[in-house]
Amino acid sequence: MFKLEFVKYKNILDIDYLEIQGDKITCIVGESGSGKTTLLRLLNKLISPDKGEIYFMERTLKEWDTIELRRRITMLPQNPIMFNGNIRDNLLIGLKLSEKPLVKDEKLKEILELVNLNKVLDEPTQNLSGGEKQRLAIGRILLLDCDVYLLDEPTSALDEGTEVKVMNSVVEYIKSKNKTLIVVTHSKRIASSFGEKVVEIFDGKVKV
Ligand SMILES: Nc1ncnc2c1ncn2[C@@H]1O[C@H](COP(=O)(O)OP(=O)(O)O)[C@@H](O)[C@H]1O
Ligand SMILES: [Mg+2]
Q: Could you list the mean pLDDT of each consecutive 10-residue stretch along the chain, which spans 208 residues?
């Protein structure tokens, strides 16, 4: 799905070779500051390497039209933005921004259940806890129906039990739809339970 060759980004990342398969759940682990977020941003073409090539489906990211690429690949940032309004508004905004057809409340309720968020759609988001906002943000991007999901520490604000529940259902959802999942996590436990492939980044390099 992705291939990196001799990729350098500032003095932050230096990756000679990395291949990420589309049909395997990939977990990216590493210490804080090792370059995990930077790697996701490169895959999503939010930033471009100073040297080397990144391929997505056999074409370099340079060749991909950015808008077309972002329709296929979506990234959940480490601190997702919440908009004013209620849970429904916040679930639908991703679809609105990417000009995709909106969905009915039934579908939104299914997604809330999937991310283990037991709230009504009319609830204002300003009252939600950090962990609840995090789950809402996961639900929002799942609705986008992209091919590849890049999640940056999606469960960092959740307690262990909820973390496992949410990861379980996200993984199941992604697998059932034959999509690709790449998750950055600092939890080795999450990486070993869910990662079919684990990539460790150490000081900007892939640890082998
Ligand atoms: N735009 C930037 N300019 C300069 N340094 C950056 C930039 N973004 C991140 N960094 C630095 O690069 C290193 C890796 O950051 P990051 O990819 O966010 O690490 P991680 O997600 O693994 O914690 C850190 O030392 C960070 O301070
Ligand atoms: Mg990070």
A: 98 98 97 96 98 98 95 94 96 93 97 97 96 97 96 96 96 97 93 96 94
> pTM for the full model?
0.96
Q: What angle do CA 53, 11, 24 make, to 5 degrees?
A: 50
| Helix or strand (DSSP H, E) at 27 | strand 26-29
- Which domains are present in the chain? 2-207 (3.40.50.300)
Separation between Cα atoms, residue 149 and residue 207, nearest integer Å? 23
Q: Residue 145's pLDDT is what?
A: 93
Measured in residues, the chain has a length of 208
Q: Check if the beta carbon of residue 135 is closer than 8 Å to that of residue 116.
A: yes
Contact 52, 7 (CB under 8 A): yes
Of the candidates 120, 126, 141, 194, the residue with the CA atom closest to the CA atom of residue 163: 194
Out of 9, 12, 32, 202, give the residue to mutate to test ligand 1, the one with the largest number of ligand atoms within 8 Å of its CB: 12
Ligand in closest contact with the CA of 151: 2
**Interstrand relation of 59-60 and 51-56 (parallel, antiparallel or unpaired):** antiparallel
Compute the distance between CA of residue 56 and CA of residue 62 in angstroms, rounded to an integer: 10
Around ligand 1, the residues with Cβ closer than 6 Å are 10, 12, 30, 32-38
